[in-house]
Design brief:
216 residues, alpha/beta, Rossmann fold, 5-stranded parallel beta sheet, 5 strands, 35% helix, globular, binds flavin mononucleotide
Length: 216
């Protein structure tokens, strides 16, 4: 069981990375091996729309032809049995870093043929982690849309979230008086560990149920 975890957040020890680590721990607890990749450590760009990945008989058919800091990671992702992907919500979306990664992972996997069968050799179970300031259901439709793409292109996909996250260590030092700080702190103390546990269970579930299905 090969596990690859992708941190699409810039920080390595805050909400998103902590929760991703839990998902990863859950997955490896089932005997798999893998690693956590921090996208912000890598130099790469998003899809450039060259279409080499769709060229009939092309040397790079079904793969991204761009060679940069993402090339090796994309190969590992395609080879993984369980792919964990994490991002804080930035302006109602995943971070630009994860977005660019997804363009390069998703686009080569699809053709414009009528029968829209993904090109990757096997299905990849995907566990997503999102953290955000916004309230719980705020991004439900966004997550649903992303899960539809993920189910189709990768395989069985699910997600875990932490909302109302603690953004600043000391809120008094920042222009941020819209927050009810005791509520945020309390949530961080009491709810965030539970959110991490949800992520752990998701990772464990994905790494356990090898027959969970794909491409629904
Ligand atoms: C540039 C930027 C944009 C953000 N945009 C949103 C947003 O659109 N919605 C939201 O709920 N939170 C937003 N946030 C808050 C973060 O998503 C939230 O604090 C998250 O848990 C941070 O993750 P981290 O602790 O791993 O950095 C934004 C934060 C930053 C720095």
């Amino acid at each position: 069981m090969k596990i690859l975890a992708i941190n699409g957040g810039a920080q390595k020890s805050r909400n998103t990375a902590t929760m991703l680590q839990s998902a990863f721990d859950g997955a490896v607890s089932q005997g798999g091996t893998g690693e956590i990749v921090h996208l912000y450590d890598l130099n790469y760009k998003g899809c450039v729309g060259c279409h080499a990945c769709k060229l009939k008989g092309g040397a790079s058919f079904g793969r991204c032809v761009q060679k940069d800091g993402l090339t090796e990671v994309l190969e590992k992702a395609i080879d993984a049995d369980v792919l964990l992907l994490a991002s804080p919500m930035y302006f109602n979306d995943v971070t630009g870093a994860l977005r660019s990664f997804l363009e390069r992972l998703f686009f080569p996997a699809i053709t414009y043929n009528k029968e829209r069968v993904p090109t990757y050799p096997h299905t990849i179970k995907a566990g997503w982690v999102f953290t955000m300031n916004a309230p719980g259901e705020f991004y439900d439709s966004f997550f649903k849309g992303l899960m539809n793409s993920s189910n189709w292109i990768l395989g069985h996909s699910e997600y875990a979230i932490a909302y109302g996250t603690k953004q600043f260590e000391d809120y008094t030092k920042y222009e941020a008086d819209m927050f009810d700080v005791p509520t945020v702190n309390q949530r961080h103390e009491e709810q965030f560990p539970k959110d991490c546990n949800e992520a752990y269970e998701m990772g464990k579930r994905l790494a356990t149920n090898i027959d969970i299905g794909g491409n629904i």
